[in-house]
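User: My collaborator sent over this chain with a note saying "see what the structure looks like." That's all I know about it. Can you take a look?
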Amino acid sequence: MKKEKQLSVSEIATRLGCEFSGDGDKLITSVGGLRESVPGDISFLANPKYSTYAKSSLASALIVATDWDGETNAALIFSDSPDASFQQVAQWFTHAPAAIPKGIHSTAIIDETAEIGQHVSIGAYTVISAGVKVGDNSTILPNGFIGEGTHIGESALIYSNVTVREHIIIGDRVILHPGVVIGSDGFGYSVNKDGSRSKVPQMGTVALGNDVEVGSNSCIDRARFGVTRIGNGVKIDNLVQVAHNSVIGDHSVLVAQVGIAGSVVLGDYVVMGGQAAAAGHIVVGANTMVGGQAGITKDIKPNQHLWGTPAVDFNKFCENNSNVTRLPKLKKRIEELEARLAAVEKQ
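Assistant: Without extra context I'll predict from the sequence alone. Here is the result:
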């Protein structure tokens, strides 16, 4: 996709199918955050609580909600979804990293049985094992390892120092960031009579759907038997652990340091906040939101909003937490009542 050097405010609005106000001839050359933008940038305002920053922003244009009526010196583009519109504009101005190589580097080791598609780029010292298939237009950056029999779809982007072990399935347009490990052994051991542990072979695989993105140093373990499955459109942040035989539903989001134990099933569109965790062999229903550091210990019905450990309904958590903060006052009242009762008993 061609990246734009500059577009006028009116041109951007036309492309987005949006109305605008202010100077439509202002030229936009880049994108930026609301507070960090400089003249020539376009930014956006999705949450009204940040409206005060719009007034002081140096951005030349802002994408705002259709009903926004705050103060700003920037030209305005009105959108039903400022966040989504800004994401679209950002793609027009974002340049691909210069480090992405073109073609196959001379130091790459590619087994003669591997099938490499058209317009594939493979970086220095990357190892492509026997029976691997790499789809058209995919890129594997330096120092990668792709294990035997693994299939990678089209237009995948695999950054440096990624390990994809044997017999893994990776869909189209998947992005794997540095340090990702796909298909390492699940954490499986049997306990012997003397209390020692023996390793249980992990004979399954991992399948990633289309449009999956996995953040740096995250690990997705292979199944003991069968498949650890990551659905289409799933977004996984840095330092996330997905254990063996788990299933992550389509378009779910796992934020930093989330831990998913073995054989967990997350429905579609589940969102788990940072450091949240799910115990093994439970099912979390679709469209559930789990707050940061929450711990899920039992099956959850769809369309829930949970927080706390063990995780409970968000409103119940807030009520419980409020009660906890009142405990010191309640303790003092009880002590006062006990003292008054003791005084009465002495009379």
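A starting point for your reply to your collaborator: Helices lie at 9-16, 51-56, 82-93, 314-325, 327-346.
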